């Protein structure tokens, strides 16, 4: 398979939790200032999600790289399956 372990599920989970935590922190700060909770949550979403793109840039890049790697391996497997369905044999299949 691959030499490096797949950290995509862990990275994605950490990234999502961090983004929601950032929204919660913004909402809590606004509600402590006296903004109504629903308005604070809405402002937290509007401000927190783009702010997360800036503050969590490294984690975002790891998640994006992991998704690209997963999509690449799926595309390779799909191409191999299609060639097998057409009856073509690849160099890997003839060596086995």
Automatic annotation (TrEMBL):
TM segment ranges: 12-32, 38-56
Keyword Transmembrane: yes
Record key words, sorted: Membrane, Transmembrane, Transmembrane helix
InterPro entries membership: DUF4229
Pfam families: DUF4229
Protein name according to UniProt: DUF4229 domain-containing protein
Provenance organism: Amycolatopsis echigonensis
Taxon lineage: Bacteria, Bacillati, Actinomycetota, Actinomycetes, Pseudonocardiales
């Amino acid at each position: 398979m691959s030499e490096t372990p797949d950290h995509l599920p862990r990275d994605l989970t950490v990234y999502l939790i961090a983004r929601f935590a950032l929204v919660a922190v913004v909402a809590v700060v606004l509600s402590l200032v006296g903004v109504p909770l629903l308005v604070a949550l809405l402002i937290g979403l509007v401000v927190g999600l783009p702010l997360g793109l800036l503050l969590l840039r490294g984690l975002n890049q790891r998640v994006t790289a992991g998704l690209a790697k997963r999509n690449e391996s799926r595309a390779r497997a799909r191409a191999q399956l299609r060639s097998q369905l057409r009856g073509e044999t690849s160099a890997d299949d003839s060596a086995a």
